[in-house]
Amino acid sequence: PIQARADLIPLSLEDTQSSTCQYYIAVPITYTRTTNAKLSNRNTKMTGEKLQLTLHATGLKNIAGLGKGTSDPYAIVTLLASGPGEKPRILGKTEVIKNSLSPKWTTSFLFDYSFGKETHINVSVVDEIRKQSDKTMGSAVFEIGDILGSRGSTKAKKLKRSGILYARISKAPPRSAGKLALRLRGIKLKNVDGLFSKSDPFFEIRRTHDGGAGGGSWSPVYRGKHMNNNLNPKWEPASIDVNVLCDGDLNKRIQVAVYDHEKKGKHNPMGAFDTTVNELVKSVGGKFELKKGSKTYGTIAVDECKIIGAETSSVMQPPSASAVATATAPAAASYQPSIMPVPVPVAGFGNMNLGGQPLPVPVPPPKKPTFVDYVSGNCDLNMCVAIDFTGSNGDPRRPGTLHHFSPHGQMNGYEKAISAVGGIVAKYDSDQQFPVYGFGAKYDGVVRHCFQVGNSREVHGVAGILDAYKGVFKTPLIMSGPTVFTEVIQLAATQAKQRYQINPLSYSILLLLTDGAVTDVEATRQVLASVADAPLSIVIVGIGNADFSAMQFLDDFETRSGVNRDIVQFVQFSAHEHNKASLTRATLDEIPDQLVQFFHSRGIMPQADSNFSASKIVIDDYNEEADIDLSMDYGSDGEIALNGDVGCYIDNSYEAGIGKLHVMPPPTAPSGSAPVMAASVPAQPFTFQVQVPPNVTSGQQIQIAHPQTGQPLIVAVPAGVPPGGIFTVSA
Questions:
Q1: C-alpha distances in angstroms, 591 versus 194, 371, 604?
Q2: Which of 130, 379, 509, 527 lies most in the core, judged by the most C-beta atoms within 10 Å?
């Protein structure tokens, strides 16, 4: 089969009537011949999961004004556009926390997640001001995978004015667990408001993210209204999403806490108790003691508690008949952190005479963990990089060759692949230390098929990988051949197994970059089969325009080798040369399934990070280029709309910079002039070189990214410049 791909680039032009029209220019179509089912289905296979985001802040600056009390903050979450052809979209806002400079919002936000795709959000913290326009207290941009890969799946950022914003990601349960309908009543609560007034109590329902034991920090998911001057309050009925409260696990520990409401926001604790949803349901008509330390501060009566609207297919039965709740709830996975042996069948068990004894009711096995379960459950991803230095890459001093470094800032194919693929995988590597290897070059007259790149065994960050790669050409290296992968694959597998012996939740990814097919296919096949039992995935990216048809054996390696584990993904870079997001999806979409298969087949389950605490969260500095305040319209009906930042988008080009994030501003037009196009360029011309993509001939138009601004440009290939040739652009 033949797959055709054409990109249509919208351009804004003006007709003779001064009205704006849309025209489309077709980028040349490239054809890719697919040779097997796995390759043809690659673009449709994505491992996606639902994640939920929760937010809180500390130390915000009070902007209420002199004599107007304390700010009333809420947060707005906006999904940022990933390119100039898209628009940002407001996902929603949290509730308002009155008189608080350290708000803990209970509202959560859902996201679609896949490993190879970046999703950026802008979180704006806003002070609600009655009868006036609300004021922004600060903004921060987060990337969903970056949060998930951080310790505790939590990321923090300093805000421009003052304060720190925290974002936490957790897995969203796959099915609806219904709503918990709860009605509580306080009895003889202890007054904590002094001699001449009574407490104004309200209650919070809290959850934990420590696996259910309740020993970690608590996060509020529901906050009721306070009752003025009442030590025997009958609170309004509460309706709480069971998935948000306990991930659908009715036996997971939760907490009920009571506070005395204070207008200044510093609410006084009146006691708390730990329980579960099952215990609450069973305790209708019963009571719980409210404890503060070892002292009793009153009693909480449960007047009503039931689950409404749970999907029947997601019911998770409690462990014993006496603990059966009066309502249904979902079978969300609850895993004990352990390494479980793989079950072994017992011969003859099916014919065993059990003497007429009734068979016990089988307990369903825990649900198979997902990729998100593992990366948020103490799994550590490690990456190593191997780079092809064979002579077929060409003389790196000549423009147009594969290892040439442009003096104008444009990346070559190797740099682009390292920055794009490495930039995503690095988010999940805890120490940011990466081994870098080379192959196919001579040192001291001997061809080396595996040698260290850089001055140390490991380099720091993706920027360190790029620096080590560039530094190789300052050594006495002679680019040679043949193309041999076996030694770097064996070394990567050995190191992966060594890490696994230390930490059974360690997994490695080898990013192997080459400009041509392997010299010995059979030897490569044998090595891949020998390392298929390693905690390792191999991503091979073909750089340049060579004939990679001989590499297709990698895509059906599992079938042909007889090994029941696929660990290899081959991608030709030229098919994604102008689309960074497309490259990362194509290279990384199989890794989640490979990782889960490896761990689950060995009975290795995700683990809670018992050493994690809030003090270990890394706080990033304010980023002037990314953490911009979006302009909002605040309607009197509570609706919020973007007001002029609809053109803002994340600069996702290859040349955007390693470890940097740019939010590109919307195009603006000077007063009385024609609209400025999204592809407008700097006032001072900048000269740079462009390499013609394969199958593109002179006279055709191509889309490029301006190396200074990252904005897209449409340029025509000059006459006489062949595919792979170089021409100069001044823009």
A1: 60, 9, 17
A2: 509
Find the farthest-apart pair of alpha carbons in the chain and give their distance in angstroms, rounded: 95
Q: What value, to the nearest 5°, has the Cα angle with vertex 643 and ends 637 and 645?
A: 140
Q: Look at residue 644 and tell me whether its pLDDT is greater than 90.
A: no
Residues 507 and 5: their CA atoms lie apart, in Å, by 35
Measured CA to CA in angstroms, residue 673 lies from 545, 646, 668 at distances of 45, 20, 10
**Average of per-residue pLDDT across 689-709:** 73
Cα 654–Cα 650–Cα 621 angle in degrees, nearest 5: 100
Give CA 151 to chain center in angstroms.
13
Taking the C-alpha atoms of residue 38 and residue 125, their distance in angstroms, rounded to an integer, is 46
Nearest to 308 by CA among 327, 326, 325: 327
Q: In this model, does residue 8 exceed pLDDT 80?
A: no
Per-residue pLDDT, averaged over 605-615, amounts to 82
218-241: per-residue pLDDT in tens? 888 899 999 999 999 999 999 998
Which residues, in sequence order, are CB contacts of 273 under 8 Å at separation 6+? 255, 256, 288, 289, 290, 291, 300
> How does the average pLDDT of the chain come out, rounded?
78
Distance CA 400, CA 414 (A): 13
Query: The pTM is what?
Result: 0.70
